[in-house]
Amino acid sequence: MLHHRGLSRAEDPLRLLVHEHEILHATLETAAEWIPELRRGDQNAVEPLRHDLYAFIDLVDEHIATEEAGVVVSAAELLSEDDHDELHQAFETVQCDEDDEGALEYYRELAHELASYSS
Asked: Cα separation of 77 and 70, whole Å?
């Protein structure tokens, strides 16, 4: 929505956020490669997976800081109250869709499964 209000996707902060999303996805893909090894009982996969997941957490923290420093400030300056309402509704819709699809439960179960490999 911000790009419709004059904030270019080719410039920061949107350019940086898109790049960070790509890095986040790549980090999770790398971490996911260790899961089949764990499921086969390869305990040597625990540490690399743990490393990748902690790297993901660090990247998420950095990404949130980028959002708060750049996008939130830009949104406050560029978006109208109606725009904010529209965004809020869109986020609620995504959350409901994810709840309906069982995403939260899937990741909760996966987290418990992964935790069991390190004990």
From this structure: 11
Cα Dmax for the chain: 54
Q: How far is CA 6 from CA 1, 10, 21, in A?
A: 9, 11, 21
Half-sphere exposure of 45 (CA within 13 A, CB side): 17
pLDDT of residue 29 exceeding 90, the answer is: yes
Q: What's the pTM?
A: 0.74
At residue 21 the predicted structure's pLDDT band, cuts being 50, 70 and 90, is: very high
Helix 103-117 vs helix 46-66: crossing angle, to nearest 10: 140
